[in-house]
Amino acid sequence: MDPIVYVALGMALGAGIAGAASSFGVGIAGAAAAGAVAEDERNFRNALILEGLPMTQSIYGLITLFLIGMTAGVIGGGGFKFAEPTTENLIKSAILFGAGLLVGLTGLSAIPQGVIASSGIGAVSKNPKTFTQNLIFAAMAETMAIFGLVGAILLIMSL
Fold first, then answer.
1. What is the pLDDT of residue 76?
2. N or C of the chain: less Cβ packing under 10 Å?
């Protein structure tokens, strides 16, 4: 297989899966936010912050897309660095594919984060003093995505 295929798939899976998961997570939390704001407009600020949390996984996917693209020479000019289908270039391209897949799969944490944030929005609308606790609950799901991003950066740096 041509090395560019692995690179392109890594870029697409990292950004695509994480982005789709963020969309689901934000949608889940957004539905709860709309209800909380309908009950009391003062809930808007807290609901908006909690609703936005699942969006960060898509940012990790986008960062990974750029890192893979720059490492491979697809972004930033200079031509594709691994164009020759040598064993070494195939391995490097497969590592970049793995980095993208890692971020994409750990980015799925945006979906349960949206569920947690949704519950937090409901709780905070009843008791605003619990905002910090609910923010921490939702942020716990984020750690898997951060681990995935760190792992992807380590993989990319190994080249």
1. 84
2. N
Short-list 146, 144, 6, 16, CA closest to 69: 6
Write the DSSP string, 125-151.
HH-GGGHHHHHHHHHHHHHHHHHHHHH
Contacts of 7 (CB under 8 A, 6+ apart): 68, 69, 72, 74, 80, 82, 93, 96, 97
| 29-45 CB burial, b ≥16 within 10 A, e <16 | bbebbeebbeeeeebee
Q: For the whole model, what pTM was predicted?
A: 0.92
